Amino acid sequence: MQHNPEIRIGVVGTGFISSHFIMALDRQKGFTASRVLTRRPIEGCTGFPRPELLTNSLADLIENSDVVLECTGDAIHATDVVAAALSANLPVVTMNSEFHITAGSYFVGKGLVTEAEGDQPGDQAALREDALEMGFEPLVYGNIKGFLNHDPSLEDMTYWGNRSGISLPMVTSFTDGTKVQIEQAFVANGLGAEIAKPGLLGVPEDDLKAGGTQLAEAADRLGKPISDYVLSLKLPHGVFIVGKHDPRQKGALRYLKLGDGPYYVILKHNIFVHLEILKTIKRVVNERRILLDNSATPVASVCTVVKRDLKPGDRIASGIGSFDVRGEAVRIADTVGHVPIGLLADAVITRPLKRGDIIRMDDVELPDSLALRAWKEIERSVLNAGYGQPEERTAIAS
Predict the structure, then answer these.
(1) Which entry of 90, 251, 359, 395 is 20 to 30 Å from 266 by CA?
(2) CB atoms < 10 A from the CB of 3, how many?
(3) Please, are residues 73 and 81 in contact by the beta-carbon 8 Å criterion?
(4) For residues 307 and 18, what is the distance between their CA atoms, to the nearest angstrom?
């Protein structure tokens, strides 16, 4: 890889992140986009900044890449891409929490796969590295969410999707909470934390220190760090860590405007998405180190919760961003047999389900896929290892 004058990056996906990442590469030396894999007809990808790079062939992408960037947000497709890339001994950098929380653990130890900085999970992992370097003991890995509506209307989501320039499923998954549940379950697994309760605590609080303190107190009650979020329209678009420090530093930390402790909030107040990805690609190419993966022994998953009554024969094209279901973080050991929301695609309901029900494998027909087989292996290995069993918890955070 080091013999090439430029590192060739094969990009998977043609959406917001892919398009703007490729534009950003114009300002970088030593790296070039070599191919862009799309499942759409190439002639239909109007407006893509580098149409000459588009291909429908995964083999073509792999043959012409030194590193693969997967940023589709599609857990099932990403699983196939990652498997092929690792078979070719290529490192994979992702902007795809949906993939990691669904099938990512299956690939741990099989090659180099890492989430990138630029989205909330990668930025929390990078912030953790900084916090540890400074001697903090993290108790909370935190996300800041601006707005939450578990069951938004099609009209509202169409308006906000058009206004924001992002897809309808994406804006819906942001609004109904699915995205933050995916991100924080992923962070819990990757950074050795827990979730305090199903669906997370999600503290509504405009004062980050006050909200962070509530979460840190919950972590102390639980006896483990937690991954969670605060809900506020007034706080910045960012991530944070709440941690403790050496009591001898109390005066210095007060002088540095961090307050009197014992809980200290460290904030990254901007998320730059595609502009941060190259930092992780450089880390992978130069150091062969991951930033964040789902771990080989995950604690959490994101189950599928029904938004409206469903009957046998109902079809769900995609769970993430759906008006029929939403995602909720759960502990794997407490929710055996659930369908991770990333697997709910081209699915047919087989049993009557009520609003609020969790969809289980017996409730739905799912197409066969590597992602489905990978998840079943992950669940089986976690349960066989006894990892994360309910009795291991020292307390229930509330």
Answers:
(1) 395
(2) 4
(3) no
(4) 31
Q: Tens digit of pLDDT for each residue in 37-68?
A: 999 999 999 999 999 999 999 999 999 999 99
Handedness of CA 266, 116, 180, 273 (dihedral sign): positive
Tokens representing residue 176 in the block: 């109904």
Ranges of the chain with pLDDT below 50: 1-2, 391-398
Sign of CA dihedral 395, 389, 73, 365: negative
Buried/exposed 172-186: b ≥16 CB within 10 Å, e otherwise: bbbbbbbbbbbbbbb
Cα–Cα distance, 142 to 215 (Å, whole number): 9
Paired with 265 in beta bridges are 242
Instruction: Give the model confidence (pLDDT) of 157-169 as tens digits.
Output: 888 788 877 788 8
| Both structure tokens of 87 | 């078979």
User: What tokens appear for 380 in the block?
Assistant: 């089986």
Q: What is the DSSP letter of 310?
A: B
